Structure formats: structure tokens, C-alpha cells
């Protein structure tokens, strides 16, 4: 899986102006089974998206579609989950 960390580099007003299309983008990829979880950082300096184990080229294409590319920088970390609580056991890969 991937942990995608977004960090805003533009003022909150610009982020808020793109919030509705960003949420539509999130909804599309949750519905497709690609996104696992997402949320704002606290304090509100960006957000986190947990992404299923897909190819990195596909991930890059998906991230490029996010309207927040105009207001945020993205840091992508690939994680090979080897242990998880029972509630998250489906994330463990061989």
C-alpha cells in the first residue's frame, strides 16, 4: 500500500476553493476500491490518503488528476504491511 501525504503550499482560501472537486476525486477512487482511507492533518496543513497496492504508474496518474495538485505537494511512501490488528488484517500482504 501507499501512504500519500499532502502538504499545502498555498493559502487556505485557495485550498478551500478546490475542496469540492477534490472530494469528488476522492469519492471516485474510493468507489473504485483504490483508496482505503483519507483525512485532514491536524493542524490543517494538508492531508493523508492511504492507497491500495497498485502500480506506481497508475498511482502517479491518479494523483495528477487531483485538483489539489495546484495547492499541495505530495510525498508518496510505499509500505509493505507485514503486521496489523484484526480490523486491518486485509492490508497484510504475504
**Helicity, in percent?**
25-40%
Going by CATH, what is the homologous superfamily?
Dimeric alpha+beta barrel
Name the poorly predicted regions.
none
What is the CATH level 1 assignment? Alpha Beta
Question: Within the CATH hierarchy, at the fold level, what is the topology?
Answer: Alpha-Beta Plaits
Essential attributes:
94 residues, four-stranded antiparallel β-sheet, 3 helices, Alpha-Beta Plaits, single chain, globular, 4 strands, alpha+beta, 31% helix
Outline the structure in words.
It is built from 3 helices and 4 strands; from the N terminus they run βααββαβ. The protein has helices spanning 12-17, 19-31, 56-65, and strands spanning 2-8, 35-40, 46-51, 72-78. Strands 2-3-1-4 form a 4-stranded antiparallel sheet, with helices on one face. A hairpin with a 5-residue loop joins β2 and β3 (46-51). The chain is globular, with a radius of gyration of 14 Å. The chain starts with a strand and ends in a 16-residue tail after the last strand. The mean pLDDT is 96.
Topology:
Blueprint (H helix, E strand, L loop, with lengths): L1 E7 L3 H6 L1 H13 L3 E6 L5 E6 L4 H10 L6 E7 L16
Antiparallel strand pairs: 1-3, 1-4, 2-3
Structure, briefly:
This protein has 94 residues and is α+β, with helices and mostly antiparallel strands.
Amino acid at each position: 500500500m501507499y501512504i500519500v501525504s499532502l502538504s499545502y503550499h498555498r493559502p487556505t482560501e485557495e485550498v478551500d476553493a478546490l475542496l469540492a472537486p477534490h472530494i469528488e476525486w476522492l469519492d471516485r477512487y474510493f468507489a473504485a476500491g483504490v483508496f482505503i482511507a483519507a483525512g485532514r492533518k491536524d493542524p490543517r496543513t494538508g492531508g493523508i490518503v492511504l492507497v491500495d497496492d497498485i502500480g506506481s504508474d497508475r498511482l502517479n496518474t491518479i494523483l495528477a488528476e487531483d485538483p489539489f495538485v495546484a495547492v499541495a505537494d505530495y510525498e508518496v511512501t510505499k509500505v509493505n504491511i507485514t503486521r496489523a490488528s484484526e480490523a486491518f488484517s486485509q492490508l497484510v500482504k504475504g
